[in-house]
Amino acid sequence: MARITTTFYGTRGSIPICDPKYLEFGGNTTCIAFLMHSTNRISILDAGTGIRALGKHINENFSEQSAIDIAFTHFHWDHIQGLPFFDPAYNPNRTINIAALGEGGQFTDLRKIFKNLMIEEYFPIQLENMGAKFNFDFKEDNIYENKGILLKTIKQNHPGGSFGYRLEVEGCIIVVCTDLEHGDTINEDIVAFAKDADLLIHEAQYTDEELLRHKGWGHSSFNQAIEVAERAGAKQLIMTHHDPDHDDECLRKIEKECQARFKNCSLAREGMSIEL
Ligand SMILES: [Zn+2]
Ligand SMILES: [Zn+2]
Q: Over the stretch 172-212, which tens digit does the pLDDT of each residue have?
């Protein structure tokens, strides 16, 4: 019996893409859902444009879940832009808990971030008029425990800062490290953070060659993601945050090369679910 199901609703980095050459891996930006089977509750990491389809899924299948938790790795556009299109946030019977966790976070006024996203200049409906009750909670801490769920974060090297998340629940370890730049060598702290993960979700925006041309842009390469997985002893690796210039054909080719090096790895596809 599966204990937790992880589903990718958005796999694209930087900007959503609508193009027939991008249908296999998907064009929506970062959004990952975690379904805990023991409680039948869905939690969300990041609200890129993929959260739109997730909202419809929640409305159809989780009408009883009154409170929905959305945690954020950081607040770049491709991780927040879908929130105004998240249907459950228009339901007065729902509570949306917007949360971020992490010591040394630069942006702590979460209400302000999301209020600004929806000011009249940018969007017809303002946050306070959406309907749902919103709670905003920034915790200046790298560890959070609640009802048998242990959440840890790590500050990552990314312009403006971002946080990796490690979720430990019912004996499953899931680690998500997206929007991070390792530097010339792999960041040892990230390897330690991902130690023994059953599922490591690591971004891989660039090839090695592309990475050289994008120093300081805050991202990793496929080979770096594999190196973290190998050294951390991760059982399974899924690479995500696909570059907008990488179409399906390009990603299929890269995936084959990656699998030749690390057997239990694949590239995230929109709609893909992993059961643990
Ligand atoms: Zn991003
Ligand atoms: Zn970013």
A: 999 999 999 998 899 999 999 999 999 999 999 999 999 99
What is the model's pTM?
Answer: 0.98
**Which residues lie below 8 Å from residue 201, measured CB to CB, with a gap of 6+?**
6, 32, 174, 175, 176, 177, 178, 237, 238, 239, 240, 268
For residue 85, what are the β-bridge partners? none
The Å distance, Cα 1 to ligand 2 centre, comes to: 35
Distance 11 CA to ligand 1 centre (A): 10
Ligand nearest to the CA of 157: 2
Q: Which domains does the chain have, with CATH numbers?
A: 4-275 (3.60.15.10)
Taking each helix axis from N to C terminus, what angle separates 248-261 and 222-232, rounded to the nearest 10 degrees?
30
Q: Which two tokens stand for residue 237?
A: 């690796």
Q: Which ligand is nearest to the CA of 81?
A: 1
> Cα(179) to centroid of ligand 1, in Å?
5
- Reported as a single tens digit per residue, the pLDDT across 60-91 is 999 999 999 999 999 999 999 999 999 999 99
CA of 158 to the centre of ligand 2 (A): 7
